[in-house]
Design goal:
Elements: H1 9-15, H2 17-22, H3 24-30, H4 35-43, H5 62-75, H6 77-90, H7 98-105, E1 113-126, E2 129-139, E3 147-156, E4 161-162, E5 172-178, E6 183-185, E7 199-209, E8 213-214, H8 232-259, H9 275-307, H10 314-341, H11 353-363, H12 372-381
Parallel strand pairs: 1-3
Antiparallel strand pairs: 1-2, 2-7, 3-4, 3-5, 5-8, 6-7
Length: about 400
């Protein structure tokens, strides 16, 4: 629940570190965040960075939001991921009229959103709105969510037929429904990021009024630099880069503690006394810090342009998108270096390094981290039309 008295989300994220650490066993065993932690994060606006002020949200700039998600992720990747996803999904509260948003989400604001941008369900046109149904997978944070925001393929006619746009492609639409409309199927059993609880949601049929829906890339009802359809994806995915870089920093901090207090199974000599370990730490630090600097520079430039109303944000978007992918892939590379340098120390749950390793390798499979993004960025830089949206 939003609290306007909370001014510094980064400080709030840092302050939660002891509570997150204490919840580590619960998060891993239950594949969910504990209720008290969810309440603390909601109170600090850590699930709703991008919700507009017009409906009671904090409307946080992406650089500040980056730092807050990074702090959470230094402690636990799943916690940072849930903050990222909920903020990216609830951003679409800006796409409905402010009076509708205030009525839907309450005052003071209480929105803990989960959902999916993949249109794996359908929305059938009916009088006054849509009837939706289907299955959506990877719905992170659904256990603690109170709202679902789901992309659907729009269909019409006695025999449901896909509605097509002027280019002949299927029309999709985002639907805002209460969490109670869906049934959660517990099938999240993974290598890492277990605490995200990214289970499937199934809806048999639910009526959604037209005013509770929006098109993914149409103009937002709330104006402001956060809500430009040309930059919205890059701003959202800035937080997945923060999640990856935060985990990489957490792994580095863990490794340094390990190297300065432990030897190995064959010698009591501290790990830090070994030249290969020293080299690895230096290289990993350069990788993490370099990738982080690229994200902050490129997203900062994009945000500055958005705030000044730049006519064409395309070049800044390309750099931001490339930086996000680079950060995710480089975070995995840095943690791989640290994991193998730690030897058998790395495989024990007691030192947290194996958790960062597992979580990063899972998070790195997100679409924002795929190698194909370099291809799309290269296409844009070469004057070609990228083969994916959001560029």
């Amino acid at each position: 629940m939003s609290d306007s008295k909370i001014k510094d989300p980064v400080a709030a994220a840092k302050a939660l570190a002891p509570q997150i650490k204490a919840a580590r066993d619960y998060i891993q065993s239950r594949c969910a965040l504990p209720r008290k932690l969810v309440q603390a994060m909601a109170q600090a606006n850590l699930f709703q960075f991008y919700v507009p002020r017009s409906i009671g949200g904090p409307e946080t700039d992406p650089i500040t939001a980056f730092h807050a998600v990074e702090e959470l992720s230094k402690v636990d990747g799943s916690v940072g991921w849930c903050s990222f996803v909920a903020s990216a999904i609830s951003m679409y509260a800006a796409w409905v009229p402010a009076e509708v948003g205030r009525e839907l989400f309450g005052q003071p604001l209480d929105i803990r959103a989960a959902g999916s941008f993949r249109p794996t369900g359908y929305a059938r046109l009916v009088k006054g709105g849509y009837k939706i149904g289907g299955r959506w997978d990877y719905v992170s944070g659904v256990d603690h969510a109170n709202w679902l925001i789901l992309n659907c393929n729009v269909v019409d006619g006695p025999v449901p037929t896909p509605v097509l746009d002027v280019q002949g492609g299927p029309v999709t639409r985002m639907m805002i429904v209460p969490r109670s409309a869906g049934v959660v199927e517990k099938n999240w059993s993974t290598l890492g990021m277990r605490g995200t609880g990214s289970d499937d949601v199934v809806i048999e049929e639910e009526f959604v009024p037209h005013e509770h829906t929006c098109l993914l890339y149409e103009r937002s009802a709330t104006k402001g630099p956060l809500y430009d359809p040309r930059t919205v994806l890059a701003i959202s995915w800035t937080l997945v880069a923060a999640n990856a870089l935060g985990m990489a920093r957490g792994a580095m901090d863990t490794f340094v503690r390990l190297a300065t207090t432990s030897g190995s199974t064959t010698t009591p000599t501290l790990m830090r006394e070994r030249t290969p370990v020293q080299t690895t730490v230096g290289e990993a630090e350069a990788i993490i810090s370099g990738a982080r600097a690229y994200v902050l520079d490129s997203v900062g430039s994009m945000w500055e342009g958005a705030c000044h109303g730049t006519a064409d944000p395309g070049p800044q978007v390309v750099q931001a998108r490339l930086a996000i992918t680079h950060a995710m892939r480089e975070s995995v590379r840095a943690v791989d270096l640290l994991f193998y340098a730690a030897g058998t120390n790395a495989i024990h749950e007691s030192n947290d390094l194996e958790l960062f390793f597992r979580d990063l390798h899972t998070a790195g499979q997100h679409i924002a981290g795929l190698h194909s993004n370099f291809e799309y960025g290269g296409q844009a830089l070469l004057g070609l039309t990228p083969g994916a949206s959001g560029w």
